[in-house]
Amino acid sequence: MNKKSGILTIGQFAAMHGINKKTLMWYDEIGLFKPAAINSENGYRCYTYHQSPVLETILLLRELDVSVPEIQDFMKNRSAENMKTLLEERITDLDRQITHLQAVRTSLCTHRQNMDTLLTMNLSEISVIEKKERCLITVDVNNDTSFEEEVELITAETEKYHLGRLHEASYGSMISVSSLQNGNYDDYSRLFIEMPFLAYEPGLHQPPCGKYLRAFHKGNWNEIPKRYMEIFDYAEKQGLTLHGFSYEMGINENVIDRIEDYIVQIEIPIAE
Questions:
Q1: Best label site of 5, 144, 154, 218, fewest CB within 10 Å?
Q2: CA–CA distance, 136 with 231 (Å, rounded to integer)
């Protein structure tokens, strides 16, 4: 750095801003950020300290994934109003990304919990657990609803609520306790999608928070009525009243190859 003139070499200026000097050369070539002067003796690019705020603005926008053409347009029309608009757009994008990442993290934690359950579970055990308040997207089905129709219904709902990928949510089925008590073990009435951070709005289903009976069933689906009989027998012996819906969800689809190894988690609300 030439202290008398306040001029910095391209290497000094790049180092001061934590970037490679090739970046400054590229910015110069595309007309995005020009040096303050060119050394007449050696042709080297020179910069001044007072150019730092402009470069930092460019670096900030690049860090926010603003395209080079967008930055070029902005630099030609720099103003507080344009800067405010550009930053507001990027803040909205960041908020959307943060929400997405939080949803992915919650989904990963759920999968990790499922794997922990698989490694430590006692399939014959029936337990009482606590469930927090949550919201579910549901679609109505019946015995006449084909698998293709179910896929179409689920797809429509995922698009409606802007669900990007299937792994960002949990899926399951619902059957009413009254149907189970009447021996109608195939009387499934809804499919559900549980998305992390889904806020309540009209049309969503809110399962009751509080105590639930939790049990598991492994293997042939035709044997699930036997498991429900064991659940209701356990509830009667414990003096527990079950109500609402039974929420069924597979917890090991991503680590099995045979349907015989499929494990269904069953959770049923307990009346207070």
A1: 144
A2: 24
- pLDDT at residue number 99: 81
User: For residue 165, which phi and psi values (nearest 5 degrees)?
Assistant: -135, 150
Evaluate if pTM is beyond 0.70.
no
**How do beta strands 137-140 and 7-9 pair?**
unpaired
Q: Estimate to the nearest angstrom the gap between the alpha carbon of 65 and the chain centroid.
A: 20
- Report the alpha-carbon distance of residue 197 to residue 195 in Å, rounded: 6
Own/partner contacts of 227-235, CB < 8 Å, gap of 24 or more, are: 227/266, 228/180, 228/185, 228/266, 230/126, 231/126, 231/266, 231/268, 232/180, 232/181, 234/126, 235/270
Give the neighbor-by-neighbor strand order of the sheet with 137-140. Answer: 127-131, 210-218, 263-269, 245-250, 170-176, 188-194, 137-140
154 has a pLDDT exceeding 90:
no
Bridge partners for 216 per DSSP: 265
Which residues lie closer than 8 Å to 67 by C-beta, 6 or more apart? Answer: none
Phi, psi torsion values for 13, nearest 5 degrees: -65, -40
